[in-house]
Amino acid sequence: MITPITRTAQRRLNLATYHQLTQAGIPSATISGRSRHGGPWQRLLPRVYLLQTGPPDTRQQALSAVLYAAHPAADPLSGTTAALTGGAALALLGIRDAPPEPLDVLVRAPRSPATAGRVRPCPTTRWPATIHISGVPSTRPIRAAGDFAARTDDADLVRSVLAHVVQGGWCHPHDLHAELRAGRVHGRPTVRAAAAELVAGVRSIAEGRARETLAATDLPAPLWNARLHGPDGTFLASPDAYWPDEGMALEIDSAEYHYTRDAWQATLLRRLRLESRGVLVASTTPGILRDRPADVIAALRTLLTLGAARPTPPRVTARGHAQLELPLPRRYAPNARETV
What we know:
By secondary structure, this protein is of the alpha+beta class. The protein has helices at residues 4-11, 18-23, 28-34, 58-69, 86-92, 141-150, 155-167, 173-182, 189-199, 205-215, 255-258, 261-276, 286-291, 293-309; strands at residues 15-17, 42-45, 48-50, 82-84, 103-108, 119-124, 130-133, 136-139, 223-224, 227-229, 235-237, 241-243, 248-252, 280-284, 317-319. Helix 6 (141-150) packs antiparallel against helix 7, helix 6 crosses helix 8 (173-182) and helix 8 packs antiparallel against helix 9.
């Protein structure tokens, strides 16, 4: 026989609030007894119970945070009074480098539940549209990214996570830029730097370092992640940086993404496609760019000079989103997460 509490548990990933349990007719003494050490239930957060003996998984931990922060009288799955946001929501989507904790949960101001364990309620008057991610009421990726940037002091982590949100196709960089301004966090130097890179076409921390390195020289500014097509419209590649007037590309190849056999062969084939159309290709790694930037600049300068002197331009067309220039940050904070 399926009881009301069974239906509640099935709908909420085996979770229930104290209010839901009592509404289902479970006496307070029974709730306390079953959630004692060694009992069939577990108290995860104040007034939030896991109706199983095994440990909670990531989804259950995330949903427990929403159940805790939601208004007791509201349906916590509706997303109308509480919604997961920030790094935890992005981590549920599988966005690289997004930290699953702390569990940031938006709540409608003026409600302001107390912080509990890893749960960090975030009151807001700017309530967003919500979605369900793996059964958990959450903000959309663009809002989650903005809330993450607003509450994270690690500059490199902000750059990396925002880049992966855009690179994964969850939002356009211009829309993310608008969200950061709407959330009034764009004025933070780390956030402004990350937004400037994304709008300019940069999609990784290594590319951000390259952009800053180039900005300190007299070399022309390239297009970042432009899509290059052959004369017949066939897509060739999307190099990290491309100088269309000189027909020269820069590729920043990290060990993490390029040094398996299949990935390395794919990299070489992409390079051959570009070179067969007359594109000059310079290669480096994040480590070389970080430790020996002068060597990289010297190579780029030579290839750009060669490219500009050629009588015949390369047989490619660069297509990409418009590059909107924003002020660069004054200095770059070293990144501990980039690959070598």
